Amino acid sequence: MIKRILTVSISLLLTATSTLASAEGNASLGKSQAESCAGCHGADGNSPSGMFPKLAEQHASYLVKQLNDFKQGRRNAPMMAPLAMGLSDEQIQNIADFYESNKIKPNRPPVVAIDDDDEDGMDEAAKKAAAEKKQAERDELLAMGGGLYRNGDLEAEVSACIACHGPYGEGNKPAAFPALRAQHADYLIKTLTDFKQGKRQNNPENIMRMIADGMSDEQIKAVSYYISMMK
Question: Any idea what the Cα angle at residue 176 is, between residues 170 and 181, rounded to 5°?
């Protein structure tokens, strides 16, 4: 399956490169047209909440596709659909160019929750031990995520993220493959879980559904943590 995914990815890239329109929007107009988006995504596209994706520095080609998918019902999102439906093609391009023109901000290291960690009843030594346990688990997840991102999981038929999203999470603009670096971990976990459960299917040849389907919940968490720390 990994070979199939790579073959599809390459063919999509070649098609996108040859057919990508040279449309350019007006980022200055896009700034004012995106004012209603600021509540969830931040004034500059750096969402303050892990529930909503960062849009700053995202490829305009990817944003245009997503907004059109919301508008046409190809991506199910009750919150986004009515907003996208009110946008013209020109406004969509302007907004996409505005977000692409902004710099994405790095994240703080993710915090690992431990179920048996009740700090209220702990002494200083116990708190220190709990903090060390959290850091050790986070480091293990980041290491696992790095391996998955670079190499995939051959046994589970999970292809490496690097193939489509680049060595630094920079994505691929001609193919409209999104940049992932410094995205919120919580949003990445939700997105991969949605692909795995079939709740989201608006990607070419359903590639992400095939990849996420082979990932465990722990692997999804690990690679999301790793990507969130990429710069």
Answer: 25
